């Protein structure tokens, strides 16, 4: 199990894991590199490629554990991690089933609902951050959520949703290196759905 875009496992995901554990599942819950309890710098950086690699590393670890039934490995994801789970289910042969909750399925379609007056500014910031990273500059960040302001998810629903799960006992700046926006727009896990042969 891993959380949504820019969210930590302490953002109500532990409660999900506990419910699954009570139902008899052996649960492995993790933060992506650069986030929460995981290592890596700069902090709060999102690389879709790296996060999918994190999933594969955890799955490889689980596959080596004697206490795990290798015939019954299940992946669970929500939002962006739900998109990762769809990709992984289409690619890996040792997964028995998946559970996805409101998965991120199509960045190109999602971009169409981004406020048109803000999209050029957001893309410019994303481009500046990407190019700055190539020459060693500090990340240019973009808020994860904001009400009607420049952010990754500039809707009132997104704002309220994220604030409802944030755990104040854990550090979270609420910002991410803006280069992730280009990655999100190009990410289309819906294209892998037809290759999934498991429930």
Automatic annotation (TrEMBL):
Q: Does the keyword Hydrolase apply?
A: yes
* Entry keywords, A to Z: Hydrolase
Q: What is the lineage of its organism?
A: Bacteria, Pseudomonadati, Pseudomonadota, Gammaproteobacteria, Moraxellales
Give TM regions: none
> What organism does the record attribute this protein to?
Acinetobacter ursingii
Residue ranges annotated for the Serine aminopeptidase S33 domain, each copy included = 15-127
GO molecular function terms noted in the UniProt entry: hydrolase activity
InterPro entries assigned to the protein according to its UniProt record, in alphabetical order: AB_hydrolase_fold (IPR029058), Hydrolase_4 (IPR022742), Polyketide_trans_af380 (IPR051411)
Name of the protein described by the UniProt record: Alpha/beta hydrolase
Its domain of life reads Bacteria
